[in-house]
Design a protein that fits this description.
about 170 residues; mainly alpha
Length: about 170
């Protein structure tokens, strides 16, 4: 692996995930989300960023459950349980001491609310808080934060556009 392997993998994952956002309703969209999220999980792991690795791991599992046509209520339960376990795990790792971490947790919770209950406003709120979290991570010197900042800004904009479409 090279010095920038984590970022290269993250950028590829970001591009694949973003292509998926351009395919709303297309059957292939979920495959883009799955592959993009897997690459973003790997990138976060290589960068040693536990929060983003776990977040993208949850997104990967959610996408895989969709690919496998798991019932929506079962998928929702699995995702909610994974998020609760993740928050408890991260709290036990001492991450609650980081004031910025609350932005990540709020983003994670609203991501689940938006995705599980099909509430676009939840996805918008999630994107805003995860963007803030990612930007602070980047400013602290973790390059992977910029990958996730770009991802979440794009995610927020596409969620907002989708929400606006529902108003017409």
């Amino acid at each position: 692996m090279t010095k920038y392997s984590d970022i290269i993998v993250g950028i590829i994952g970001l591009i694949i995930f973003c292509i998926g956002t351009l395919l709303p309703g297309a059957p292939i969209q979920i495959y883009f989300f799955f592959v993009g999220a897997l690459l973003l999980t790997l990138s976060s792991y290589l960068s040693k960023n536990l929060f983003f690795a776990l977040l993208e791991g949850i997104v990967s599992i959610g996408a895989l459950l969709s690919i496998l046509s798991v019932a929506t209520d079962i998928k929702g339960i699995v995702i909610v349980v994974l998020v609760v376990v993740t928050i408890i795990y991260l709290a036990k790792k001492g991450m609650l001491k980081d004031k910025n971490f609350i932005n990540g947790i709020i983003g994670l919770v609203f991501l689940v609310v938006g995705a599980v209950f099909y509430m676009p406003i939840g996805l918008i709120i999630s994107g805003v808080f995860l963007s803030i979290y990612a930007l602070v991570v980047f400013k602290r010197g973790e390059k992977i934060g910029m990958v996730f900042f770009v991802l979440n800004v794009i995610f927020t904009i596409t969620s907002l556009l989708g929400f606006i479409k529902t108003l017409h």
